[in-house]
Amino acid sequence: MEIVVFIEVRDGVAKKSSLEAASEARRRADQHGWKVAALLVGSPLEEAAAKVASYKPDRILLADDALFASYSSQSYSAALAEAVRQENAHTVFVSATTMGKEVAARTAAKFQTSVLADVVSIERDGNTWKTRRPVYSGKAYADVQSKEGAPVFITLRPNVFSAGAPDPKAKPEASKLSVPIQPQDVKERVVETHKAVSETVELTEAEIVVSGGRGLKGPENFHLVGDLAKALGAAMGASRAVVDAGWIDHQFQVGQTGKVVSPVLYIACGISGAINISPVCLLRNTSLQSTKIRTLRFLKSRTTASSAMRYRFFPC
User: Could you give the CA distance from residue 179 to residue 38 in angstroms, rounded to a whole number?
Assistant: First the structure.
């Protein structure tokens, strides 16, 4: 019995959310006596493979041909499908990122099955998986159970499942994955990449998020949000209203029409309404008291003793 984990690699680096998925796969495999195979697709993969190895998969599969140098849902899903067949996997873990959700859906279609999407908890029930996912902007949860038979594809919400402690001594077997796909089979290709420059942490993976809204009165004041984010080692976010007004780029938008975040601490500056804020505490499955304790630890680790800052929590 095997679990295959799709590791998302960006600029040669394994994404933190994929390491969380690999850690969850390792925990589940240890409980049931299974094996874990981690699939890395892209080029180059040396640094990412070394990082993933420390999270103790049993095998690492590398699809690093020139065809995979740029992302394509067709080529990447072909690689994942081949890994599932080669390893005879019954479960596939993928991080619920933009890339992960697309690759998981396209690959699942090849096996004539669906995806248990954006889950925040997983339990094994006999030969099936019971999962829970948020719906209605986190106001409720849906419990979804897989069927027996075809491989089960599960996308895990980032920042919900903890990444295990890396073991630098771990030396899993690594091998090249031969994918039966030709360049002419790929109908889409990346012509050019435009990268937005950001001086703060990646929004979807941040433990602390500082967001700003119309209450800041104008784009000339939005630097206050960025300054606070830098001071706390946090990611900067924004409401839809200020993005639509052109104050800041869409990549910073948090909420239903932007990016989903699951931080330990969310600071909203001049944002009206709770629709973007209320799901934050719920999706981490943590109590208010534990959130307070973890938040204080974060804040204290990012400020000096001489700053004499004091913190107080106010109920929503």
Answer: 15
